[in-house]
Task: inverse folding
């Protein structure tokens, strides 16, 4: 995420790193730490926070937004398999968990995904259709999506929207050639 943070900082955004140590999967301590970090950032900047999460980080971002929508402006996920329902403890699919995670939180959500992921099933990284969700396909891999120029542009575009005025990503003009959705 260092390259993405630097890119967004150069665009003038207030960027805040993870600061919670190595991410070894969800547990009570990590959940409490993420909540405290979100509250700290929101208190410091004095406004709702946009959260960008890559892979498992995107699942965490959605859960933070679900838990505290008053603190979260929007969520942007990159190759995050929130619809998979995979359990971290013994690697099985939990359908109830999958349904809960697939349901978007009550804030605008943008899912960047790639059909060439190579790590997680790309179909599980896409939002269901809702008035405040969207999917943007990026020609990248799971590891490369966070440094892909098209992903960085899409993230910057999403962050540039005025708060409370969220609109789906416009794929018109040249963008219609670069951001192609296949059926």
Result:
């Amino acid at each position: 995420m260092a390259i993405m943070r630097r890119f967004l900082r150069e665009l003038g955004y207030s960027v805040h790193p993870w600061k919670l140590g190595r991410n070894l999967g969800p547990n009570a301590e990590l959940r409490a730490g993420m909540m405290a970090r979100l509250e700290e950032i929101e208190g410091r900047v004095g406004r709702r926070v946009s959260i960008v999460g890559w892979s498992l980080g995107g699942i965490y971002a959605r859960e933070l937004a679900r838990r505290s929508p008053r603190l979260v402006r929007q969520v942007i996920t990159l190759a995050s398999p929130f619809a998979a329902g995979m359990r971290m403890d013994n690697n099985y699919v939990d359908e109830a968990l999958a349904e809960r995670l697939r349901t978007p939180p009550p804030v605008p959500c943008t899912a960047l995904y790639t059909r060439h992921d190579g790590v997680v099933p790309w179909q599980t990284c896409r939002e269901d259709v809702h008035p405040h969700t969207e999917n943007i396909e990026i020609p990248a891999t799971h590891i490369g999506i966070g440094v892909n120029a098209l992903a960085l542009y899409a993230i910057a575009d999403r962050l540039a929207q005025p708060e409370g005025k969220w609109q789906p990503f416009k794929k018109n003009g040249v963008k219609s050639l670069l951001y192609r959705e296949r059926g």
